[in-house]
Amino acid sequence: MTPKPDNGIVTIPSHYSVDETVKRIEETLAAKGVKLFALIDHSGEAEKAGLQMRPTKLLIFGNPKTGTPWMVDTPSISIDLPMKILVAEDPDGKSLGFVQEGFAALYTRKSSPEIVGATLVVAHAGEMISELTLAITNKLTMQALAETVHCYPTQAEVFERIALSYKPARMTA
User: Fold this and answer.
1) Is CB count within 10 Å lower at the N or C end of the chain?
2) Beta bridge partners of 172
3) What is the DSSP string of 23-51?
4) Domain containing 87 — which CATH number?
5) Residue 75's Cα: distance from chain center in Å?
């Protein structure tokens, strides 16, 4: 099933229970070196308050080395960072993951606007990663990426916005 965006939130079905899904996300984050800042057990807290709620847990995670420069440059981005994933059980007993619709970052060398890396947290990252791989392999600059005609208009918008907002002090590797 394809994840479906709804008001900036993407819903992703899971084949596992809420607890197993959370465990698998935690393992993936740890394997990738991503810090888990908090795990909030909404349903557990509801139970402590004498209320009932289907299993619902929120994971808050990120990478301070990556996120901090963005937050220093644009403090309002802190409303979206660190990243969050909500895992909840629907009325049919199926587990669902909910994530923000997307986040993309491109990285350059301190001394040059040449693109050297990227972070994509988007529903269709697979459609975007090949283009970014070509940009990195061919040592494209942010300006060159902004001027590129992209096969998918949504990619063009994302890449153009990132590239045109390029500030060397913010995006460095």
Assistant:
1) N
2) 108
3) HHHHHHHHHTT-EEEEEEEHHHHHHHTT-
4) 3.30.310.70
5) 18
Residue 123 is encoded by which pair of tokens?
């529903």
CA-based nearest residue to 83, from 51, 66, 61, 106 = 61
| Close Cβ partners of 52 (under 8 Å, ≥ 6 residues apart) | 46
- Quick: pLDDT tens for 49-92: 999 999 999 999 988 888 888 788 777 778 878 888 899 999 98
Q: Give me the helices (H) in 18-152, please.
A: 18-31, 42-48, 64-73, 125-137, 142-146
Host H or E run for residue 97? strand 95-100
For the chain, what is the domain count?
2
